[in-house]
Amino acid sequence: MRRIFLICLVVWSGDQLYSQSKTTASEHYNLKKNIALQGYDPVSYFVSEPKKGAEQYRYSHHGAVYYFSSQQNLETFKKNPEQYEPQYGGWCAYAVGATGDKVKIDPGTYKIVDDKLYLFYNFRGHNTLLDWNQDEAKLKPAADENWAAIIH
Predict the structure, then answer these.
(1) What SS3 class is residue 123?
(2) Of 32, 39, 103, residue with least CA distance to 132
(3) What is the pLDDT of residues 31-43, one digit of tens each?
(4) Rounded to a whole number, what is the distance in angstroms from the first to the last CA of the chain?
(5) Pairing of strands 116-120, 106-113
(6) Secondary structure percentages of the chain, helix, strand, coil, to 5
(7) Please, what's the b/e burial string for 63-99 (b: 16 or more CB within 10 A of its CB; e: otherwise)?
(8) What are the C-alpha distances in Å from 138 to residues 3, 24, 68, 71, 95?
(9) pLDDT tens across 59-114, in order?
């Protein structure tokens, strides 16, 4: 009986930890149905160009589900997820820096800075990557500070 109780306790504890990280991800990450990057493969941004991932190559990290275009990219991500995850929860880097707002992104509008992925809004004739590039030195520290306030 004690053994069954301990097994149940371990399962329940693990479920509680997952639930907390899932809540954090769904609360702060740019997700649609728990899918990050609108289904794009995060590793593909670093090795060539953004590619849509496939559901068969999926991996959950901090409650967000990532899709990959190949098993190799999936394995690469699993070794170091923090390197490939988009900054600011996958929200528009410019908006986070300029106003502290969470604004949708175009997954094809991005920039790699210091081996980190930054995504941008690019709709209705307004590409915020261009704005970011004009004032990145000011916007990046502001975005880092604003994001820290958002997630805490």
Answers:
(1) strand
(2) 103
(3) 999 999 999 999 9
(4) 41
(5) antiparallel
(6) 55, 25, 20
(7) bbbbbbbbeebbebbeeeeeebbbbbbbbbbbbbbbe
(8) 57, 28, 33, 38, 13
(9) 999 889 999 999 999 999 999 999 999 999 999 999 999 999 999 999 999 999 99
